[in-house]
Design the sequence.
């Protein structure tokens, strides 16, 4: 390809992110041309329906088409940008594009987490690049550092706040003392939560991102199905108050850890709400911001912080990938391909080491604490702190454990629930990010 | 180059960073081979003197040589790694290497900030890669995101804590109320400050890094000489206490801003101590950690945090660059070359907009405040807050201004110093990171 011609782009999808991609391509045209060495040109924009008002976009209306497949098959298309989301038809489109040697830039976390291997294989087959910086943590340059900068190091753990909606809700609960429902309502009104917030509050969105992060960090293949997932709808105002008393706050975390088992190195990946100390760098990440804390053997702790969602921040990440893909097209080079040589086994959640914060409603009578403590001892779970409050019919025990395997902690909770003196288990939350 | 042979490295320097590079190459050998597709092999290690005890390094002692030039001229060397520091002979060695088509990985901030253009030109001439992630903010993957991830966006400001020694000193002053001398002594004892701390405390180290960051962020060429520099030896315990009263702390910042002047876009780059609000993400960066806050038009605010110094963290960044350079060698590709098309004019410090915190010892008599306020008005500097303390012969005025050009603020201070009623100007500090 001569550097005098332009690099031609097919854009699939023109919603919140897609329209910002169009705007940035227009606004930054001169800079982009200087940085790439050739102009970028939109060859077409595939949308579901023509005729929707897009009059404010700085683009020739004749570029819109409903025929995505014909667009990506055109010989004059160099790079395909997918911001449609979902598994199909995105997957078919991207496989078709990659096999035909067209580089792909996508923000599709669900597809990458479910079937990234197929996309990477198609990229290898077609000799094309597959970039997906925007799929995790929006504008934050995170995947390129993991894919490239840290390749001389060994990452041991990735801990992230990768869902802006739930971080907004939890930050609001921490600041105002509101309960989950009230905070969700506020988030919905302000546009931080969708009408159906399930994917966010139940942790599906974070789990997809966790799979992508774990794959890159540990050079192995992790899919969404490998991720232990627990939503944050059960976090109460009482939990947040209890966290504060402990000098903590509550965040929905994704945690990917490298570990070693009897049969070699393993990886564990989980998404769940957790208490973390206020002194932890992730504790201060408020509003709808995202941040990812990476620990590597030589580098030590690293943190990446920024906007994890929104059309314009996400479009910034998409544009960065477009520049890289376009440069490679012009120079006939390729990005580093998928690195999954490590092939680590996925460790079940039961083997993850964590701590539990358990809040129990108990009958207040002599010997209660002894009985409860006995259950922990039977399961070889060591207690770090106990707080007792209330009296008589309304006593509450809050117990925080030391670090133990999740299976032992879960079995302890199960056994506690069967005790007569335990009226109910008010809440169970994991505690992360501090000394065990 | 066939992928069955190894990629051969010449290491120049084997001090704190160099010896950690040797160790990581050994420890991570299997992973590095898998990631690169070929093994890395040390062809030689140039040191100033042979015979120094290096028995603990996992390397064949015959690799050591005092003849760096012969080493880098060897035909079987693919990548030259420079961790010697300083301008000469490092510059000559690297120019020689690059012109001969050998890729260079360097941690040499002073050289890049003084004469980066010459190195980039040599790289272009020889068709070689020039990587220098380790030159700024140690282990933090920062330059690659600026060089690549943000290339579809427009960076407007970079604000960084890029010197670990001074951050340790200022964090210690903030935590304990100690003065500069006492905190410096502690830093020296703990190994955070060198015997001669001038380069750190006078801001020379930060200024070199600021030049490198500004060049990458704004696609222009900025050298150390373009950077306004003010050290932090004048920061007193009283300043820190005053910062606390304002809900601030004091950090040594590097600030690179894009702006526009009558003759087009400009850039300003400065290093000085400044008060920043405790709510600013940089305020919580303690100990010897580094962090860089980047603002981009589409991405919004981003922050990168981690260890900015130390042998092993720095070696992590060097290794990441080695992997990239080695991969390029094997696939016959090249990294994006220098991007300096913007050629922005450097704006003098006087035109930078900032705020001043001015502490004055004044005679306590009627009309003092009116006289002082008059001086501000004459220079068209607006006052945000005034605090007066003490009485009679020992009164103190602390004035914080609104945002104004640095030249007007400096002229105000100069005029105040000439007033009879001003006994002395106890301190002047800039205030950054908040509303003007």
Sequence:
């Amino acid at each position: 390809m001569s550097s005098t011609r332009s690099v031609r782009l097919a854009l699939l999808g023109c919603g919140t992110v897609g329209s910002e991609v169009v705007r940035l391509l227009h606004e930054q045209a001169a800079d982009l041309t200087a940085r790439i060495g050739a102009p970028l040109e939109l060859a077409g924009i595939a949308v579901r329906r023509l005729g929707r008002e897009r009059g404010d976009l700085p683009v020739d209306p004749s570029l819109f088409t409903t025929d995505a497949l014909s667009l990506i098959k055109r010989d004059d298309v160099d790079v395909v940008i997918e911001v449609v989301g979902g598994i199909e038809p995105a997957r078919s489109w991207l496989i078709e594009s990659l096999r035909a040697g067209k580089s792909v830039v996508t923000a599709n976390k669900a597809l990458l987490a479910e079937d990234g291997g197929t996309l990477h294989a198609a990229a290898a087959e077609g000799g094309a690049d597959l970039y997906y910086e925007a799929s995790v943590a929006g504008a934050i340059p995170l995947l390129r550092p993991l894919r490239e900068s840290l390749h001389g190091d060994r990452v041991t753990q990735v801990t992230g706040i990768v869902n802006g909606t739930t971080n907004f809700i939890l930050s609001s609960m921490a600041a105002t003392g509101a309960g989950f429902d009230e905070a969700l309502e506020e988030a919905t009104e302000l546009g931080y939560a969708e009408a159906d917030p399930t994917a966010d509050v139940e942790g599906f969105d974070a789990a997809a991102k966790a799979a992508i992060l774990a794959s890159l960090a540990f050079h192995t293949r992790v899919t969404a199905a490998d991720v232990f997932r627990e939503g944050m709808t059960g976090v109460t105002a009482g939990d947040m108050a209890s966290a504060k008393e402990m000098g903590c706050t509550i965040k929905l975390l994704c945690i990917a850890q490298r570990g070693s088992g009897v049969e070699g190195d393993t990886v564990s990946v989980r998404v769940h709400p957790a208490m973390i100390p206020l002194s932890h760098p992730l504790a201060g990440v408020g509003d709808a911001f995202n941040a990812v804390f990476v620990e590597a053997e030589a580098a030590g702790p690293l943190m990446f912080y920024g906007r994890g969602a929104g059309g314009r921040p996400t479009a910034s990440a998409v544009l960065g990938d477009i520049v890289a893909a376009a440069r490679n097209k012009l120079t006939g080079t390729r990005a580093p391909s998928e690195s999954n040589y490590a092939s680590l086994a996925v460790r079940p959640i039961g083997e993850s080491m964590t701590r539990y914060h358990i809040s129990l409603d108990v009958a207040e009578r002599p010997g209660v604490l002894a009985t409860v403590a006995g259950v922990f001892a039977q399961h070889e779970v060591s207690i770090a702190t106990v707080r007792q409050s209330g009296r008589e019919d309304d006593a509450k025990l809050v117990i925080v454990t030391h670090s133990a395997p999740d299976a032992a902690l879960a079995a302890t909770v199960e056994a506690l629930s069967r005790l007569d003196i335990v009226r109910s288990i008010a809440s169970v939350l994991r505690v992360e990010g501090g000394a065990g």
In short: Chain A touches chain B through 55 residues (CB under 8 Å). The mean pLDDT of chain A is 93. DSSP finds 14 helices and 18 strands in chain A. The first helix of chain A runs from residue 16 to 27.
